[in-house]
Structure formats: structure tokens, C-alpha cells
Amino acid sequence: MKKLIKRVVLLALAVLAVVLIHNQVRKEAEEAAANAALAAEQLAAESEDDTQSMAIIRLGDGVTLGRMEENAEGGVNVIVSREGEPEETYTFTDVAYDSWYANAVNFAVSTGLMTGEGNEPIFHPEFGMLRESFASILYRFTNGVPVTPRERFEDVPADSWYFDAVAWVTNRGLMTEIDPGVFGAGEYMTCEQALVGLYRVAGEPVTDGSLLNYPYASKVSDYGRAAIDWAWKSGLIAEDECVWYPPQAISRAQVALLLMRYSAMAS
Fold first, then answer.
1. Distance from C-alpha of 130 to C-alpha of 136, rounded to nearest angstrom
2. Can you give the pLDDT at residue 47?
3. First and final C-alpha spacing in the chain
4. Where are the domains of the chain?
5. Dihedral (CA of 150, 153, 158, 161) sign
6. How far apart are CA 170 and CA 175, in angstroms?
7. Helix 2-51 with 163-171: angle, nearest 10 deg
8. In degrees, to the nearest 5, what angle opens at C-alpha 130 toward C-alphas 108 and 193?
9. Distance (Å, rounded) from C-alpha 149 to C-alpha 168?
10. Exposed, middle or buried, 202 (CB in 10 Å: 0-12/13-18/19+)?
11. Is there a contact between 211 and 220 (Cβ–Cβ < 8 Å)?
């Protein structure tokens, strides 16, 4: 009798073990399926991000170049007329009418890519541009939309004014981090970095990377070689108006000029 009871108990334990194992396997399978579904959703969202239009801003289709007039302070007034909106005047006392960047400032302001600095009537054309500011301008230039960031940066808080812009440009690979988990907010954008960003917007055209006749070829990194070669040979940059020194902080005037030239070239 004792042997029979022992066998029954052992059989019950065996059955219980089988049930537990079955439940554990089913739970793990359900978790795996849920994780796979989540991964599929994330992949679909990323794919949707990748197919978002990256058509750049061009003049036309309701966007026209503003009228530029010299003002009494020796600067310029840019009078902008946008479709369906009242005429708006932007006054800059630090942009000379005959400066090499005057038309570029007109383009940047007319298209809504850039405005003045603060509440003063100044553009600060010669001031360096911060990385988050360049990301925001590139975001507008490529008709960016809010996306879920694939990577979080410790220097890009979710409530920062540049969060959406950084998510867009990094998701699209137009800009990258400067250190693991660090975007580089608060640091100046270099000429080389800016040209790499625009080169990626252009779809990374084929170039031989020879940097023929480029005066600062020895200062170009491997990372920026193709981009600067493309920009130099396509006429996007030239030594006529300013110095395009790769490691130097790019100025606001230079950014405006780059966008104007690329917009015209892409058209």
C-alpha cells in the first residue's frame, strides 16, 4: 500500500512538473511573440521615418525672395511677402547691402530658415553656429517632421527646443553624435561637419575625393573628404567670398550661403 501511494505521489509530481514546464514554455513563447511584434512595430515606424519626404525648401510654390532695401543704419531691410500672409519686414543693421552674404540672408529669411538674433535688429552674420541651431535649420530645410528618436542623447532633453530637429537629423543620418550618447549641443558646428550634412542631404553623390586645388586639403579628415570634394568641385564653396577652412566654426552667413546655393543647384 505504501509503495502504491509513493508511486501515485511521484506520478502527481511528474505531472505537475510537466504542467509547470509547459506553462513556462508557453509564457516564454508569448513574451517572445510580444517582443517580436514590438520590434516589428519599431521597424515599421523607422521605415516610415525613412520614407518621409526630404524635399528641400526651394524658392517658388508660394516662397519668393524678399525685396531688399538699404536702411538708414547702413544695413538692410528685407520685405518678405508670403502667400496668404501679410507682408513682413526684417531689419538688420549688421548686414551691409553690398556684403557677400546679403542675398544669402535674404534667402534664409524669406524661406523662414533663419531670422535675426534675439529682439535686436541684428543677424550676426559672422557669429559661429551651434550644432543644435544647425540641426534646427537643416530640419526646416529638409521639411522634417517629428519622429521617434532611435537614440537618446544626454545633452538633448525631451523638452528642449531642438529635440525634434536632433531626432530628425540623426535618424536620417544627416548628423551624428560627437561622443557615445552625446550629440554635442552647445558646441560649434565646423565647416566640415556642415558640408557633410549637406552632402548627405544630396544623397552622397559619387566623387573621387581628390580635393584638386582645394587650398586646405591637408586639413580635411577622412570623414569629410568626399563631402568637401563634392562641395568644392560643384561650386557650392569657393574662396571668392570667404574662407572654408574645415575645422573652423561655420558662420551664420556661411550657412545661409550654403543653403541658398544648394537650393538653386538642386533645382
1. 10
2. 42
3. 95
4. 1-51, 56-124, 125-266
5. negative
6. 5
7. 100
8. 85
9. 7
10. middle
11. yes
> What does DSSP assign to residue 98?
T
What pLDDT, on a 0 to 100 scale, did the predictor assign at position 27? 61
Q: How far apart are CA 1 and CA 223, in angstroms?
A: 83
What are the start-end ranges of the H helices in the chain? 2-51, 102-110, 131-141, 163-171, 191-201, 225-233, 252-266
Ranges of the chain whose pLDDT falls below 70: 1-53, 61-62
88-92 and 67-70 beta bridge pairing: unpaired
CA 160, CA 130: separation in Å to the nearest integer?
14
Q: How far is CA 100 from CA 13, 57, 193, 257, 258, in A?
A: 88, 22, 22, 9, 12
Q: What is the pTM of this model?
A: 0.81
Measured CA distances, 22 to 10, 16, 17, 18, 240 (Å): 18, 10, 8, 6, 76
The H or E element containing residue 230 is helix 225-233
Q: Where do we find the cell 523607422?
A: 46
Nearest Cα to Cα of residue 105 among 244, 258, 262: 258
At residue 227, φ and ψ (nearest 5 deg) are -65, -45
- Helices within 52-123 (DSSP H only): 102-110
Rounded CA separation 41/50 (Å): 14
Assign 12 to helix, strand or coil: helix
Q: Which helix (H) or strand (E) holds 16?
A: helix 2-51
Sign of CA dihedral 16, 18, 19, 20: positive
Q: Tell me the torsion sign for CA atoms 245, 250, 251, 254.
A: positive
pLDDT (0 to 100) of residue 202: 96
Nearest to 110 by CA among 61, 66, 153, 57: 66
Single-letter code of the amino acid located at 146: P
Question: Cell numbers of 153, please?
Answer: 542623447
Q: In what order do the strands lie in the sheet with 76-80?
A: 67-70, 76-80, 88-92
